[in-house]
Design a protein that fits this description.
This protein is α/β, with parallel strands linked by helices and about 425 residues long. Helix content is about 40%, strand content about 20%. The strands form two sheets. It has a nine-stranded mixed β-sheet, with helices on both faces. It has a six-stranded mixed β-sheet with strand order 10-11-15-12-13-14, with helices on both faces.
């Protein structure tokens, strides 16, 4: 089966090249380390009302996901049936006249060296959007060091067509440095001083709950030239969502859309499962569900949100292993303890690597009775149920393989909504 999959991947890649040659769509490629899917969805919100666009769907590897998105397939190659179905669909798109999109919005990620170079040899983006990367990016284990990782990202920047643009997060020092290699026009966004498009006046929105005020979303203003555009986003929170909206705003301007129209579209931006989504919990608690994935820069931002939330009750952090960090793993997990100390009242660690968090918290003098460690998410579910009380805020975060969404499901108030609220509810994931 693995041999057939490899043949299928090559065949799908060849079909994708033929599709691009036939229909000649323009491409917005979104890369980086944190917030790519959030940015993709925000860009889609902005463009879909005015242009015929298609966005890449499920999070496959670049080797497989990009060809599938170009062809228009929503499924992978998990079975021989899917494999044949996708290949036949690709042939139909190539051989017949199809109503093909004007623009493709592609989330481009690389799990290993060579992935992005292969993608850049297939597509020539008209625009590249670079999200935050951080000094210890996700997947860095496979690249060995930051320089190798950045060379891979640079391949995407270098592939932008003449006359195109690179839009980037200027607050991230690594992304800022990467943008300097661009041979086309660049547009900076950020919340610090100096960006062409900036986010200001960020606030957490609160509503009335049984135990007092509870977070319901966030508000901030988009500043562009001499104009300021206020925006409210509900059911989600955190700066990565803010960056996604700022980057999408910049993309909309590049498309010639009026700023007021872009803001109106972004006002309909929806919370994504597992990405700082606010989920009602049992016993009138509130869950910050950030269970989709984890990396050093992402967990830093999620803990910052936990710190900033006004609460008179417990702030519980449920933290799973950060994977694929290689030699950086131990130091980055210890740094999580530094971030949590003085913020969380209780800490639950999941996984072998997260034990470093426990050890470091104890070194800081964190009460031993307020820390517990489990090997798996399944083991932690019952403990969290007994720990929480009315008004508690619960942050749940970890890498994909840690399956932290299982813990969210255990303590969410409306488990009947799990298929639309939680990540990884597909049968293929549940069977793993």
């Amino acid at each position: 089966m693995d041999y057939l999959k490899q043949i299928a991947k090559q065949a799908l890649k060849y079909e994708a090249k033929l599709v691009l040659k036939k229909y000649k769509p323009k491409v917005v490629a979104i890369t980086g380390s944190v917030g790519k899917t959030l940015t993709k969805e925000a860009v889609y919100h902005v463009l879909s009302k005015n242009f015929f666009v298609r966005r890449s769907g499920k999070s496959f590897t670049a080797e497989l996901g990009i060809p599938l998105a170009i062809i228009g397939c929503g499924e992978g190659v998990g079975s021989v049936f899917q494999l044949i179905k996708n290949l036949l669909f690709g042939l139909r798109v190539i051989l017949t006249k199809s109503n093909y999109p004007q623009w493709l919005i592609l989330e481009v990620d690389g799990d290993k060296p060579g992935d992005l170079e292969a993608v850049s040899s297939m597509i020539k983006p008209d625009m590249v959007v670079i999200t935050a990367i951080g000094e210890t990016p996700s997947h860095i284990e496979m690249f060995g060091d930051l320089e190798t990782f950045l060379n891979e990202k640079k391949a995407m920047v270098d592939s932008v067509r003449f006359g195109g643009a690179v839009i980037y997060n200027a607050d991230d020092s690594i992304t800022l440095e990467l943008s300097k290699s661009s041979k086309v026009r660049t547009v900076s966004v950020g919340v610090l001083n100096g960006s062409q498009i900036s986010g200001t006046e960020f606030e957490i929105l609160y509503g009335s709950g049984k135990t007092g005020s509870v977070p319901t979303g966030m508000s901030f203003s988009i500043k562009y030239k001499n104009e300021v555009f206020p925006i409210n986003i509900f059911e989600t929170i955190g700066i990565q969502n803010q960056y996604a909206i700022l980057l999408a705003f910049a993309v909309g301007l590049e498309f010639g859309l009026p700023a007021s129209q872009i803001v109106n579209s972004l006002g309909k931006y929806s919370a994504l499962p597992g990405r700082m989504r606010l989920v009602p919990g049992v016993k009138d608690t509130l869950i910050i569900d950030d269970s989709y994935n984890s990396s050093p820069i992402a967990i830093e931002e999620s803990i910052r949100v936990l710190k900033d939330i006004k609460s008179v009750d417990k702030k519980i952090a449920v933290i799973g292993d950060m994977l694929e960090l290689g030699r950086f793993s131990a130091i980055e997990h210890r740094r999580v303890a530094e971030l949590l100390n003085g913020v969380a009242t209780d800490v639950i660690c999941i996984g072998i690597r997260a034990r470093k968090i426990v050890d470091e918290l104890l070194n800081y003098g964190f009460p031993e009775s307020k820390i517990i460690s489990f090997d798996t998410a399944d083991e932690a579910q019952g403990y969290l149920q007994n720990l929480i009380n009315e008004g508690d805020i619960i942050l749940i975060k970890g890498s994909q393989a840690m399956r932290m969404e299982k813990i969210v499901e255990e303590v969410m108030r409306y488990p009947q909504d799990k298929n639309k609220v939680l990540v990884r509810q597909e049968e293929e994931w549940k069977g793993r």
